[in-house]
Design a protein that fits this description.
Its EC number is 3.6.1.56. This is Oxidized purine nucleoside triphosphate hydrolase. The protein is of the alpha+beta class. 18% of the residues lie in helices and 42% in strands. Strands 1, 2, 3, 4, 5, 6, 7, 8 and 9 form a nine-stranded mixed sheet that branches. The protein binds the ligand Nc1[nH]c(=O)nc2c1ncn2[C@H]1C[C@H](O)[C@@H](COP(=O)(O)OP(=O)(O)OP(=O)(O)O)O1. The ligand Nc1[nH]c(=O)nc2c1ncn2[C@H]1C[C@H](O)[C@@H](COP(=O)(O)OP(=O)(O)OP(=O)(O)O)O1 binds next to strand 1, strand 4 and strand 6. Ligand 6U4 binds next to strand 1, strand 4 and strand 6.
């Protein structure tokens, strides 16, 4: 008997960024509960019913670190194909022109990092493969294949804005 996998679960992840060049800093959060507990990541979560991805990104940013972004930019998509649980599709945003004060939430303990000192050893194992692309300002689609223990395949494609926009309505690898 063959079992059909459910469609991927949809998420956002948002990276607040300040400055540029060697002075560029990224706000990461140390996840305090649930998926990715104990790891540094951007802020984000599940797309709620009736919400657009942009709405979800604004909401998660505010809920998880107290910030509002006047310049929220959709920059990439991660297709996570997993042998051990449902697949995930994660829409990646950068957030600039930030308003408000950074606050710790139930879910995340935030901390600024300069981009040459990112805590890759304490992040999801594939972060080091695609964060540099995001931080360079490229638009991208990344695909990762995971077993329970490892990322066994990956591919990062640079795309244009039209392709990224198309993936908002037809999110498939
Ligand atoms: N392998 C992975 N690599 C990565 O870079 N980000 C991942 C990842 N797996 C999950 N994420 C991100 C997606 C999303 O931003 C976050 C997980 O979201 P959560 O499960 O915390 O969702 P919610 O904030 O909606 O949860 P609750 O409020 O606890 O229901 O982690």
């Amino acid at each position: 008997m063959t079992t059909t996998k459910p469609p991927p679960r949809l998420y956002t992840v948002i990276f607040p960024i300040e400055g540029s060049g060697s002075g560029q800093r990224v706000l990461l959060g140390l996840k305090k509960r649930g998926m990715g507990k104990g790891l540094w990541n951007g802020f984000g979560g599940k797309l709620e019913p009736g919400e657009t991805l942009d709405d979800c990104a604004h909401r998660e940013l505010q809920e998880e670190c107290g910030l509002e972004a006047k310049d929220l930019c959709y920059v990439g998509v991660l297709f996570m194909i997993c042998s051990h649980h449902d697949d995930l599709t994660i829409f990646v945003y950068t957030a600039r022109d930030l308003v408000g004060s950074v606050v710790e939430s139930d879910e995340m303990a935030p901390q600024w990092f300069t981009t040459d000192k990112l805590p890759y050893d304490g992040c999801h194992r594939e972060a080091r493969l695609w964060w540099p692309t995001m931080l360079n300002g490229s638009l991208f689609v990344a695909r990762f294949v995971f077993t329970q223990d490892d990322c066994i395949q990956h591919n990062i494609e640079h795309v244009d804005r039209a392709r990224l926009t198309q993936l908002l309505s037809q999110p498939g690898p």
